[in-house]
Structure formats: structure tokens, C-alpha cells
């Protein structure tokens, strides 16, 4: 039986080390997905945790100013000012009306300080309306 | 046409169900005509699926914009290749493609086994066709590719389509999905054989021998798919990375990890008759991870930059996975006593033990990746808050795991079966060990301080030397005996036992890839807004913008910078990073300028125009050693191909068959 204890001990060490690494890492890197409304309800915690907020980029709100970009995210009529000063340029898909994800921390001044922006063009996967006077819609032809 | 297409998919659905019923009922009631009819149904499914796919592809190529799918994923100005690639560019089409691949594989399996495994085959057909039925449900009733566009119930065409997602309009990306899908779908076959062998209570390893090649080929496709994906990310996304631990990337990695574990642990079963239950568990896990991977890509379960599709598919996939996993678990538990191990572990320092740890680590990494990927879902279920883990977390965990695996790659194959003597340890590891320590010391002196980079380079040299010594020793022995030169002897050696030496080559590929990964510890980058004539220094390169141009070619508008690269006053050439804006989809992409060299890549990205619209934002990166990832990938592919060549000498494995269990439990039906 002794050799099985050896195996068990080795396996336990390996798994233990991994669990330790994993759980230590979680606290350092976790990011909360929040809607704009939820950020408002978080109270003080909003200023401490890393957040990821999604919304649509308000048309005309994108402003570039020395090395930083400011814009407003909108979701269900709630608005959130975001400032981005990261070194990576904004993604190609980032523009008025796009769906954007901002990663970063909430500033005490109410401006969200983003360290990373992801964006997805809202109309990308839908047939564009307005190509015909009345937009054709898919109908089910399977039956 | 579209009606014929829908009808073909619908018929395929009925025929697939018939194939399941005919095969299983035929097998249970010993009715050969039903079994044969079930196998013919498989061919029919293939014919029907090919017809349906052909109609869709025809629509894409001819630009029949009455199809909703064509209007969304094709347009008039796209090159032919991408019109064809649009088949798998969108949700409906890619699921049709999945179905078509599965039907193709099934037909091949039925054909190649038409005279073999008669007792098992009906169940193999059954399992494959159950999976086929599931995908046909999706093709027929959830995401039909043959939906038409209509205004007031009158079928109408739009003048032009949206075009394929421009990010996908890149040669590597056009073939990346089919490669990955070939890999995903392929694991259905070993899984079907494993289940069939469980149902028929086969005591032996027939399913493993039969599916060995399948598994390897499938694994090869998956590896190619992952590599292509990484290469695509590197060359197209413009951020210079090749791997970002994005959910969709993880989805492709998960079955690869468990599949790799499976490829190793089957050796234990073939040679020692151990780990039988484990192998069935692994192959099932791999198959379900493939399905899970497809669903992750297709349903947007976890939000991702790649989430190319979101739709009502989630619950179908979840139900299928739940039912499938429950049924498999039940079957394995019910048949446990047929799967007894024929040998025991003897020593911690043995080949068996190294396989065990290889499996443990691969599975642990698989689980870690799965956990990290699903963390938003898990945390939301547990605490009500959606929490995501980013690349930092994955790197923290996966770098040590990867390094440990790398070490095992070197030591595992050289441990002897059962137990390893101190003498053999010394003989095999003394030189590589000393060399590795020497390298690390040298790098420390040279000023390298990154802990992981030091360890990684040390391990890489260690493993590479152990592999090379294996080749050298074997080849020298053959060379001396047969008066061959060393090169010929190496080829001869490899040919004699392709699996072993092909495997070493794969390991060598992994080592080269790790060298490339480690280079990331020394990346440099800079960003600058530049006009014609402006310069930027990065590392030992001097960059100078010599031209800025813009234009339009119908499919997209473009901005291009011509950047002159010099080092120490010598002009090395020019790079032309480009930014494109695709008109139909109103989306931009980057065409990076890369100067690839073995020691480092100089990588320029056209970030965009500055706010005043005059200067170009140029991002410059130096990526040391990154080319070795692609070279390693090619070596890995080559090694796998070597494994697929039959060995010149058939290996006879000294192995005791456990006759007692065979005669006691196996009921071979007459």
C-alpha cells in the first residue's frame, strides 16, 4: 500500500498547488460585469472593484483630447461617462452607436476610468434596414 | 431550389432517425437486413446533406440575395474563395457544415468498416446518427439556412448582401473553421466506437485499435485549427497577440487538451491493459467538450469578442449535453466490471507514473480553462454577480502548468516501464540536465531576470537534448550495424517505429513552440502619431514613415503607411501596415506589416488616423522568437504525420491477456 500513498501524496501536492494558484489569482484579477444601473447601486464598492460595463456609445459623444478619449455609454436611458487613456488604440469597431464594453474602475468624480475598451458594431449581423423602402425580413421556409 | 434544400435537410432528419432505429432494432433482433438498411440510410443522409449544402453554396456563389443567409454573409464584390467560405461564416451555415461533416465521417466509417466489427457497428451507426439527428434538429427547426427574405410574404431579394465578416476575409481564417470543425466532429467517431464497445460489452481494446488513426487525424486537424487561429489573431487583429484566453479560443483548446490526454493514456491500455475506464471517460469528455466548444462559439453563452453569433441555440445544446453526459455516465457505471485493469502501478519513477501525471496535468489544465471560461456563469449562479477572469488569471495558472508539462515531455518517454533504475536515469538525464543548468546560469549572467523565462529556456534545452539523444543513440546503433550514414539511419530508425519517433517529433514541436511563447517575456512596443518624414526608434530599429496613401477598391476603403525600417543606419526594407474599412459590413480591419525573422518579428500596425486626420497612428512592436511558434507547429504537424505512417516492423506488445474476465463476461453474439 505504501506506493499508493506516494502517488496520493504527489497528486495531492500537484492539485493543491493548482488550486492555490487559481484561487489566489481570482482575487487579483476578477472583474465584475455590471450594467450601468447596477454600478449606481453598488455604493462604495463601485470605487474598489474592477468593473466591466456594457452599453451603446452615445452618438456624437466621442471626444478625443490629448492622448485620451471620452465618451458616454447609454443603456436604457441611463448614461455613464467614460474616459479611456490606455496605450492601445481603440478597436476598429468603436464608433457612434456601437455596443461597447469598458473595463476599468469607477472614479470618485463619476467618470469611469477605462483601461480597455471592446466594441462590437451593433448592425453587424443583422440585415440592414432601409436598403429597400420596406426592409425584407426573413420568413420561415422550412415547412 | 430553396425548397429542394429545405426538403433535403428535412428528409435527412427523417432518414437519420430511421438509421438509428433500423440499426439498433436490427442488432437487438438479429435482423441483418435492417442493419444493412441502417447503414445505407447513413449514405442517404450524406447524399441529402451534400445536396442541401451544395444548394446553399450555389446560392452564396451566385449571389442569390433572396436567401436571408446569403444576404447576411455574402456580397457581390467578395472574392470567390470568401463567397465559398461564407458557408461556414455564419451560424446557420456553419451548423449545416457541421452536419455535413458528420454525415461525411459517418459514411466513411460505415464504408471502411463494412466487413469489420459487425457486432459493434450497428451501435456505432446508432450513436453517430443520434448526434446527427441532434444537429439536424438545429438545421431544420432552429437555425435553418434556407430562410428567405420577404416583404409581406412575397419573397424578395435585396440588391446586395452584407458580406462576410471582414475579419474572416483572410486566407488562414477561411480554412481555420473547417480545420477546427474537422477536429470537433472527428471525435464523434472514437466516441461512437467507445460507446458501442461498452454496449456490446467488448472486453478488449478493439475500439482503441480501430479508432487510433481517427483520433490522431482528428487531433491533427484540431492542432492545425488552433495554430491557424493563433496565426490569424497575430496577423489580423492588430494587437500582436496570438492567444488571449478568449472564451472561443478556450473552447477550441479544451477538447485539444483532453484529446491529448487521451492519445497518451490509450498507450497505457494498449501496452499494459491499464486505465480502461479512464480512456472511455476521456474520449467521452473530449467529445462532449467538442460539442460544448461548438455551442460556446455558436450561442454566445459567455460574452466574447469572438461571439460571432447569439441565438436561441443555448438550451438545445445544454439539453443535448445533459442527456448525453447522463447516458454515458450510466453506461460506464453499468459496465465497470468489464473494464478492470490488468496491471498495477509499481513505482513513482516509471513510465506508467509519468503517463498518470501527464494525464493529471492535462486534465487539470483542461478543467482550469473550463473553470475560467465559465466563471462568469458560475459566479452568477452562486453569488448573483457576474465575475469574469481575464488573461492575467489564465497566464498565472497556465504558465506553471505548461512548464510542468514541458518537463514531463522530456522525462516521461525515457522512464522505463514498471520502474526506472538510477543508472538509466543518470545515463538519460545527466548531459541534458547539466546543459540546461549551464544555459540558465549563462542567461542569468547575460542579464535575463524573468523567472519563468529562465525556467522555460532551461526546460526547453533539457527536453530538446533528451529527444535528440534518443534519436542519436538509436540511429548510431542502426548505422553501425547496417553501415548507414547517420541521416539515413535516423530515417530508418523512425520508419521502424513511427509512433515512437513521430511522437518525439511532436514533443520537439512543443519545445519549439514553448521557445516562441517564452519570447513574449521580452516584448517591446511603442505608439506614435506620425506624418510623412517622422521617425520612431524602437529597440535597435529606426522607423521612418515615407508615404501615406488612401484608396478604395469597391469591397473596402484603405489607408496605408509605407514605413522604412533601418538598423544602425542600414536600410532593411519597408513595411506597409494598412487599415481597411469594409463598406458592406461597415467594419474596419488591420493588415499589419510584419518583418518576421527567427530571432524576432518587427510588427507594425496602422492604428488609425489621428484626430486631425493628418497623421497616422503607428503602433510598433518587437516580438522576440515568435516565429518559433509557427515552426514548432509545423514540426508538430510533421511529427503527427510520421505517427500515421505504418511502422516497418510490427510491434508485438508483450502483454498478458486476462483470459478469466474475457470468458466470464464476454458474450460474443453469434
Please give the structural blueprint.
The complex is a heterodimer of chains A (about 140) and B (about 675).
Chain A: H1 2-29, E1 31-34, H2 36-41, E2 51-57, E3 63-65, E4 68-75, E5 78-84, E6 99-106, E7 112-120, E8 137-139
Parallel strand pairs in A: 1-2, 5-7
Antiparallel strand pairs in A: 2-4, 2-6, 3-4, 4-5, 6-7
Chain B: H1 2-28, H2 32-62, H3 68-73, H4 80-85, H5 91-112, H6 121-142, E1 148-151, E2 154-155, H7 171-186, H8 188-199, H9 206-236, H10 247-272, H11 276-299, H12 314-334, H13 351-383, E3 386-388, H14 391-411, H15 422-446, H16 451-482, H17 486-496, H18 498-519, E4 524-530, E5 535-538, E6 541-552, E7 556-567, E8 570-575, E9 578-582, E10 587-591, E11 593-595, E12 600-609, E13 616-624, H19 627-644, H20 659-665
Antiparallel strand pairs in B: 1-2, 4-13, 5-6, 6-7, 7-8, 7-9, 9-10, 11-12, 12-13
Helix pairs in contact in B: 1-2, 1-6, 2-5, 5-6, 5-7, 6-8, 7-9, 7-11, 8-9, 8-11, 9-10, 9-19, 10-11, 10-13, 11-12, 13-14, 14-16, 15-16, 16-17, 16-18, 17-18, 18-19
Shape of chain A: elongated
Q: Give helix % range of chain A.
A: 10-25%
Tell me how many strands of chain A there are: 8
Strand content of chain B: 5-15%
CA radius of gyration of chain B: 27 Å
Could you name the ranges of chain A where pLDDT drops below 50 across 5 or more consecutive residues?
Answer: 122-134
| Major sheet characteristics of chain B | 6 strands, antiparallel
Highlighted features:
heterodimer, A: 143 residues, alpha+beta, 2 helices, B: 670 residues, four-stranded antiparallel beta sheet, 20 helices, disordered C terminus
